[in-house]
Automatic annotation (TrEMBL):
One of its GO terms (cellular component) is cytosol. Residues 23-126 form the Cyclic nucleotide-binding domain. This is CRP/FNR family transcriptional regulator. It comes from Tumebacillus permanentifrigoris. The keyword Cell division does not apply. Keywords: Activator, DNA-binding, Transcription, Transcription regulation. InterPro entries: cNMP-bd_dom, cNMP-bd_dom_sf, Env_Response_Regulators, HTH_CRP, RmlC-like_jellyroll, Tscrpt_reg_HTH_Crp-type_CS, WH-like_DNA-bd_sf, WH_DNA-bd_sf. The keyword Cytoplasm does not apply. GO terms for molecular function: DNA binding; DNA-binding transcription factor activity. CDD domains: CAP_ED.
């Protein structure tokens, strides 16, 4: 893993950055000041590994910019993409109140900046700031509901349906308006899509080609997808 560049934050810059992170937004100036004194701001290059599944859990990350892929490996060594995180997200979402390990791997898939905080300091911050504790519970609840939805999709839909639902979800998380459609602001390979829905790259290739013929998906020269969400939803 490469060594990130550590940056210093002035007070005004810190308040602006924290205001864009859902967990910290809404805190008063005194609470924000307390938070800012504990954080480090770091630059991470594309493809930088942040931690490995099973490593001791010692740091919490808050994304200012860039994107992070969270993934696991099954018993056969196959990659299973859990999620792609972006600006405003925090991770991991477990292990703050016990000595444990990271539940998955994390790697930068787009260079960016993050705020980092040791789990010990984060735990103390949560315990001493009731507002923050409630916000953290809301974040964890949201992630739990998201996981439940994905598990339901795996059970109730075939591979084609899971791919369509994943594309719709990606459009909501990473989409930007583009002539009535949504352009993903993150490049996701067919293999990564396959890893997200539990199938092979060849199967995803075939299904994406059909979706392109249907006019629901278009791939740009930079490998970013343009999605017609309305057409995708009609295919469910």
């Amino acid at each position: 893993m490469s060594i990130p560049c550590v940056l210093l934050l002035n007070k005004m810059e810190t308040l602006h950055v924290l205001a864009n992170i859902p967990l910290f937004s809404g805190l008063d100036e005194e609470e924000l000041s307390k938070v800012s004194q504990l954080l480090l701001r770091r630059n991470f290059a594309d493809k930088t590994g942040l931690f490995l599944q099973g490593d001791p859990l010692h740091t919490v990350y808050f994304i200012i910019s860039g994107k992070v892929k969270i993934y696991r490996n099954d018993e056969a060594g196959r990659e299973q993409v859990v999620t792609v995180l972006q600006e405003g997200d925090m991770f991991p979402h477990v292990g703050f109140f016990s000595t444990g390990t990271y539940p998955a791997h994390a790697v930068m898939i787009e260079s960016g900046e993050m705020l980092t905080l040791s789990t010990a300091r984060f735990r103390h911050l949560i315990e001493s700031t009731p507002t923050l504790c409630l916000k953290l519970l809301a974040v964890i609840e949201h992630k739990y509901m998201e996981l439940q939805a994905r598990l339901s999709e795996m059970v109730m839909h075939d591979t084609h349906g899971r791919l369509v639902l994943m594309l719709v979800r990606l459009s909501r998380l990473h989409g930007e308006p583009c002539g009535g459609r949504q352009r993903l602001n993150v490049s996701i390979t067919n293999q990564e899509l396959a890893n997200m829905i539990g199938t092979s790259r060849e199967t995803v290739n075939r299904m994406l080609n059909q979706l392109k013929r249907d006019g629901a998906v278009e791939t740009c020269s930079d490998l970013h997808m343009i999605l017609d969400v309305g057409k995708l939803e009609q295919l469910l």
